[in-house]
Amino acid sequence: MRYSVWILALLLFACGAPDEPDPPVAESPDEADRAVETGIDPHSYAEPNRIRVSHLVLDLDADFTARQLSGHAVLELEREDADVERLVLDTWDLEILDVTGASGDGEFELLSWRLADAHEYLGAPLVVALPEDVDRVRIDYSSSPDAFGLQWLEGAQTSSGQPFMFSQSQPHYARTWVPLQDTPAVRYTFEAAVRVPPELLAVMGADGNTFERNDTGEYHFEMNEPIPSYLMAIGIGDLEFAETGPRSGVYAEPELIESAAWEFAELEEMIDIGEDLYGPYQWGRYDLLVLPPSFPFGGMENPRLSYVTPTIIAGDRSLLTLVAHELAHSWSGNLVTNAAWRDLWLNEGFTVYFEARIMEELYGRDRRDMEAVLGVQGLKAALETADERDLQLVRDLSDRDPEQAFMRTPYVMGRLFLDFLEDRFGRETFDEFLRAYFDHFAWQSINSEDFRDYLEANLISPNPGVVSMEEVDEWLYEPGLPDTAVLPESDAFDSVDGYRQAWLEDDQSLSDLPAEDWSVHEWLHFLNGLEGDLDTDRMEALDDAFDLTESENYEIAFAWLMRAIETRYEPAMDRLEAFLLEVGRNKFTQPLYAGLADTDWGRDWGVEIYERARAGYHPLTRQAAERALGIED
Ligand SMILES: [Zn+2]
C-alpha cells in the first residue's frame, strides 16, 4: 500500500499539476509548488502568503442515517497579495455542490471553480477563480459517509444506546468535513450553527456549549480566539454535563457521567497550577468530552473542550497525566502553534514538559520521575526502529503522510530538550523565559527557527557560557539523543526492578512483593520489564496472586495482555477478545494485533476478531490494525 503513495507523488510531480481549473485561474498547485509557494507547510495546497481565511461561518445539518454533515461554509478572506486571482482550499472526499462569492454586504454570485485530482493522503485542492472585489466565498457541500475526520457510531456501539458522532481533525482531517486552508500556519475565528436530532446534544470546541439539550436540536457556537484548522472539533451524542469547578466540567454519556466527574474532580486545580506556571488561561471555560471507547487516541486538545478516551477512567485518578497533557496544550499548541508538522515538537515536547510540571505540583516528584522514566524507555525503543528522518526534533516530513509526525521523538525528546535547558539555567530563569515565550508568540503559528532565534536572543545570549548554540542545534538537527540529555531516574522503579529480579531468580515469592502499595506506574514498569522472561506457569502464578486478567485499569490490562500473547496464556484470551471488541484506542489495539500477528497461532484469530470489531473502530484504528495484521485492501 505504501509504494502507491510514492508513485502518486511522483506522477503529480512529473505531470506538473492535477486538473486545471477554469479560467481565469492559471495554474493549480503541484507537489513542488506547494512547498515553494507557501514556504511553510507541504501538507496543504493553500497559499496563505497570497490570501488568508480570517473568519469562518459554518452552517451544518448532521444526518445520522446518511452519516453526513451537509450545509455550507462561508470563508471571509484577507488578501496578502493584491493581484491574487484564485483561492485554493484543501478538501478531502467532500462533495462540492456550489461555490459562490460576494463582496462587502453584496449578494452571493456563482464563481468558477474546479476540484483537482485527489492526492492519496492530502485530498483534492478546490481551486476557485476569484474576481477582484470578492472577499467572501461560500461553499455548499456534504462530507462523505467515510470521512476520515469523523466517526459515526450507531446506538449498538455506545453505552447509551443512542448514536454518537465525533470529529478528529489533527493533523489534516479537518478538510474531510470543512473546506479550509487546512494548515496550522493559518489561524481564523469562527461561528457555527449545527442542527442534530433533538434527542442528542451537539458540542464544539468553542464558546456556546450548553449543559442541556433543547427541543429544536439547533445549537450555536462561536470561537473568537483565532485557531488553526486542526483544532476544529464537533461532538454529537446523548450527553450529560457535570461541573468540576466554576469554569470546568465534563460531558459524557449518562452511564459514565458520575464516574467521569469523580475521576476528573481535580480539573479546576490543574487549571490553577497551569496559570501559576505559564500565565492566564486564555480560553474561558475548560471542559472535557468523554468519548466512546472507540476514540482512536488518548486525548485531543480541542480548545475549551478537550476530548478524552474513557479508558483513563480507572476509578482511582491514576491516569490523569493525560488530562494534564491536554490542558497544557491550552498554552503549548493552542496558544503558540507549530506552523507545520515538521515542528510538532514545539507543540508536543513543550506539552509533555508542561504536563510533568503540573503532575509534580499535584502529586510530587516521585510520580513525575516515574512517568519520565517510562517515557524515555519508550523513546529509546522507538529510536531503535525509527526512520532516519525521525531521529531529531526538526524532522523532514515533506513527502510523507503528516500522520507520521506523531511518534515519540517530538514528544519525549522535545521534553528532554526542555529538561536540559531547565537543568542548565535553573528552574527560576527557565520558567521566566517560558512565560515570556508564551506571551511573545501568543496566537501565532511559528516554526523551529523562530523558536531558535528567540531562545538565542532571550536565554542563551543574556546568560553567556551556560549553553552554546552548537548544543541547541544538536538537539534540533542532529540524529539521536544528545549526550547532554539529563535522563530521569526513579528510586521507586529501581526497587521494582529489584523485586522483579528476585522473583525471577526464585529468591522471593509473589506474596513478598509490596504490590498492594504500587502505583499504576510501578505495575506497568514491573509488567513491561518481564517481556521475554515469562512462561505460562509464571503467568498463572501472577494471575492467581493479583487477578491481572480481570484488571479494571486499561493500562495494566493492556500490559498484561501483551505478556499473555507472548506466552500464549489461555486464561487471558477471553479478556483479550473482549478488550479488542470494546476498545478502539490505537495505542492499545495496534500492538495487540501486531503481537498476535507475530505468533504462529494468533494471526488468523486476530483477523477474525478484527472483522467483528471493525465496524466499531475509527478509520485511523482500522488502518493501523490492518497494517499490523497484514490485511491488504
Ligand atoms: Zn499532545
Task: Write the SSE topology.
Blueprint: H1 2-15, H2 31-38, E1 51-63, E2 68-79, E3 86-91, E4 95-102, E5 109-110, E6 113-115, E7 124-129, E8 136-142, E9 150-153, E10 164-167, E11 187-195, E12 201-204, E13 218-228, E14 234-237, E15 240-245, E16 248-252, H3 254-263, H4 267-278, E17 286-290, E18 299-300, E19 305-308, H5 321-328, E20 336-338, H6 344-363, H7 365-385, H8 408-425, H9 427-440, E21 444-446, H10 448-460, H11 469-477, H12 491-504, H13 520-528, H14 536-546, H15 554-567, H16 573-582, H17 586-597, H18 603-613, H19 619-629
Parallel strand pairs: 1-11, 16-17, 17-19, 20-21
Antiparallel strand pairs: 1-2, 2-8, 3-7, 4-5, 4-8, 6-7, 9-10, 10-14, 11-13, 12-14, 15-16, 18-19
Helix pairs in contact: 4-5, 4-6, 5-6, 6-7, 6-8, 7-8, 8-9, 9-10, 13-15, 15-17, 16-18, 17-19
The structure holds zinc ion.
Zinc ion (ZN) is lined by residues 301, 325, 329, 348, 351.
Strand content: 15-25%
Helix content: 25-40%
What is the CATH T-level topology of the largest domain? Immunoglobulin-like
Rg, rounded, reads 25 Å
Unreliable runs:
1-38
